[in-house]
Write a structure and sequence with these properties.
The protein is of the alpha/beta class and 474 residues long. The protein has an 8-stranded mixed sheet, sandwiched between helices. Strands 13-14-12-15-17-16 form a 6-stranded antiparallel sheet. A 3-stranded mixed sheet has the order 4-6-7.
């Protein structure tokens, strides 16, 4: 019997109508005879609002924090009432939602008293989003006759204790999945699990980083050795660029693990950057699908994608970056200089995206973060340091870029009106990236899209949809 892990994002569970669509999609897999595991995000925008409530409380705005929580309580209660009509189940779910919000309010009051928000407490606060959504969705599925059962993700997704971006412990997850999840499947159940949230070995709540529900889906798929992992979202699949930035974006029908991972790492929000890892380890295909358009075939991510005559598959953008210039008065490319620089980034646990060196300077790009002043202070012991925020990294991804002559010239001709700060076509054969001002990023993507997707390979891109959209109505 084939086994599928289906992950539904925030917009796929944003209200009773969306949850109804999601239930119908799950039913279609169950009635096709598949063993099915469902992973869900918090309802859309809930994670942002919980974070806002926590930070308001921590600066002493107790009333503001509790008002956010109260609005969230009403939204979740209304959703539950609309979906679950059976009186005893509805009462039980209503009580459970109230209990959860009562304990959330207690935490918020505590934060307003102590005026400090640690990463550990932030994870606890945001966990309520997935803890509550998964309960409501499991109950809604049962109401529709799906043999669903709720399972707390924190019992199976075990991580280290790096709050807000915890690292999964694969061996422990496999063990917990075998103990808690597999038996449910063997009994014909459809487990419903909150994504993003996890716990350390001591049982303290952690999270996998923003957008982490995709990663939960892939971790569970990997641990179960699933036949497919489905990521259900609000677009038709991986597109040639973010359709919000570039309305002409085309659906990519098929893409390799390596290309998808590169796109996710460089900012294509449609997938959490770590999603592909568990799938690669077990060679499990990942499908990206649209819960608002379930008939569309979406994007298949597989180990080796077919040949593509177009040079690029997609363009990603990572914003909110900073560029750090370390400038020495004379060449200090002496032995150990670069490693001293990197050890400072290491010490502050700050990953570096891109590096470029010259005779007297080293430029590095990192996510803009609150550690930058401390990093700069440490670096200034070695040389002069400048840093500047509001930068964006644009990344073009496609197989065999290096094998094609003149690619760089074509790329930089397409964006000749934009000032480029740093360029990289380093070790990876499948990406070409450059750094520009954040304000220029959307325009750069549109110009590149217009230059490189005029004659897309119909075997790889959904050219038919584009034709339908542009043909005059008859
Ligand atoms: P979910 O809540 O389902 O996880 P996300 O908002 O995290 O959904 O991701 C889906 C969004 O990713 C899309 O609405 C789209 O704006 C954005 N996106 C960015 N780059 C791409 C891309 N290359 N292809 C498709 N979507 C993209
Ligand atoms: N709810 C979490 C977030 O908004 C995780 C996710 O949706 O994937 O980041
Ligand atoms: Mg997401």
């Amino acid at each position: 019997m084939s086994l599928v892990v289906m992950k539904f994002g925030g917009t796929s569970v944003e209200d009773p109508t969306a949850i109804g669509r999601t239930a119908a999609i799950v039913e279609s897999r169950v009635s096709a005879g598949k063993q099915t595991v469902v992973v869900v995000s918090a309802m859309s925008k809930v994670t942002d609002q919980l974070l806002r409530a926590a930070s308001s409380a921590a600066i002493g705005d107790r009333t503001g924090a509790l008002a956010i929580s109260s609005r969230l309580r009403s939204r979740h209660r209304d959703t539950a009432v609309a979906l679950v009509k059976n009186a005893p189940d509805a009462a039980e779910l209503g009580n459970l939602i109230d209990q959860k919000f009562d304990s959330l309010d207690e935490i918020l009051r505590g934060l307003a008293a102590i005026l400090e928000l640690t990463p550990r407490i932030s994870d606890l606060v945001v966990s309520y989003g997935e803890r509550i959504s998964s309960r409501i969705i499991a109950a809604a599925f049962i109401e529709r006759g799906i043999n669903a059962v709720h399972l707390d993700a924190r019992d199976i997704i075990i991580t280290d204790s790096q709050f807000q971006r915890a690292i999964p412990q694969d061996a422990l997850i496999e063990k917990r999945v075998a103990e808690h999840l597999r038996p449910l499947l063997n009994h014909g159940k459809v487990p419903v699990i909150g994504g993003f949230i996890a716990s350390n070995e001591a049982g303290i709540t952690t999270t996998l980083g923003r957008g982490g529900s995709d990663f939960t889906g892939a971790l569970i798929g990997g641990a179960l050795g699933a036949d497919a992992i489905e990521i259900w979202t609000d677009v038709d699949g991986i597109m040639t660029s973010d359709p919000r930035v570039c309305p002409d974006a085309l659906r990519v029908k098929v893409i390799s693990f390596e290309e998808a991972a590169e796109l996710a790492y460089f900012g294509a929000k449609v997938l959490h950057p770590a999603t592909i890892l568990p799938a690669v380890k077990k060679n499990i295909p990942v499908h990206v699908l649209n819960s608002r358009n379930p008939g569309n075939e979406g994007t298949r991510i597989i180990s080796i994608a077919p040949h593509c005559s177009s040079p690029f598959k997609s363009i990603a953008v990572k914003k909110k970056l900073s560029i750090i210039d370390v400038v020495a008065s004379r060449m200090l490319m002496t032995h150990g200089y670069l490693s001293e620089i990197f050890s400072i980034f290491d010490k502050h646990q700050c990953p570096v995206d891109m590096v470029s060196t010259s005779e007297v300077s080293v430029s590095l790009t990192v996510d803009s973060n609150e550690k930058l002043p401390a990093i700069a202070a440490d670096l200034s012991k070695l040389a002069d340091v400048k840093y500047e925020g509001k930068k964006a990294l644009v990344c073009l991804v496609g197989e065999d870029i290096r094998g094609r002559n003149g690619m760089a010239a074509q790329v930089f001709t397409a964006i000749r009106h934009i000032n480029v700060r740093m360029i990289s076509q380093g070790a990876s054969e499948i990406n070409m990236s450059f750094m520009i001002d954040e304000d220029d990023a959307d325009e750069a993507v549109r110009s590149l899209h217009a230059a490189f997707f005029t004659d897309p390979d119909p075997a790889i891109f959904d050219v038919e949809a584009q034709k339908l959209a542009t043909e005059p109505a008859r």
